[in-house]
Amino acid sequence: MSECYYCGDEYKKYMKPIAELSVSYAYMAGYQKYYPGRCIVCLKRHAEEWFELTDEELCGFSRDIATVARAIEAAFPCDKLNYGICGDGNRHLHMHIVPKLKDGYTWGKLFEMLPPVEDQILIPDAQLDAMIERIRAHL
User: Fold this and answer.
1) Ramachandran bin of 48, using left for φ above 0, alpha for ψ from -120 to 50, beta for the remaining angles
2) Which of 23, 34, 80, 139 is the most buried (most CB within 10 A)?
C-alpha cells in the first residue's frame, strides 16, 4: 500500500478532528462554503472495502456514522443529509456526511466533493473550531 491520505498526515491540511468514536474518527471538512457542517467519518484502521470489515466494525462504523449524522443535523439544521462513499482517489474507507438545504447549492443533485477551484478556500481555524464545538455538543 502506498501512503494513504488518512493513515498519513495529508488529511490534516484540509480537516480537523471532531471526535474519536468506536471504530472511526470524525473530522470537520475545511471547505465549508457550500455545505456548512460537512463532516467525514473515517475508519480507524486501513480498509478499502465494506467487505473487509469484521462484523463488529460493520456495526460500529454504521453506528458511528449515525451518531455523527444526528449531531450534524442538530448543530446545522438542514432539509436532508447526503452520504457519500467513493474511494477512487482516496481508498481508505470513509463516509462524507453533507447537510443540504432545499434550493441550496446542488440541491437535487450529488454534492460536490470539492468546491469549484475559485472557492477552494479553507475557512479560518477559529470559525472551524466553533463549528466543531457545535457538533461536539450533540455527540
Assistant:
1) alpha
2) 23
Instruction: Give pLDDT tens digits for 108-122.
Output: 999 988 778 887 888
Judged by DSSP in three states, 18 sits in strand
The residue type at 52 = E
Query: Which CATH number is 10-136's, of 3.40.440.10, 1.10.10.60, 3.30.390.10, 3.30.428.10?
Result: 3.30.428.10
Q: Are 76 and 37 in contact (CB under 8 A)?
A: yes
Distance, C-alpha 28 to centroid of its chain:
6
Longest dimension (CA), the chain: 42
The interaxial angle of helices 125-136 and 55-75, nearest 10 deg, is 110
Domain boundaries, the chain: 10-136
pLDDT digits (tens, 9 = 90+) for 2-27: 589 899 988 888 899 999 999 999 99
Please indicate, yes or no, whether the overall pTM of this predicted structure exceeds 0.85.
yes
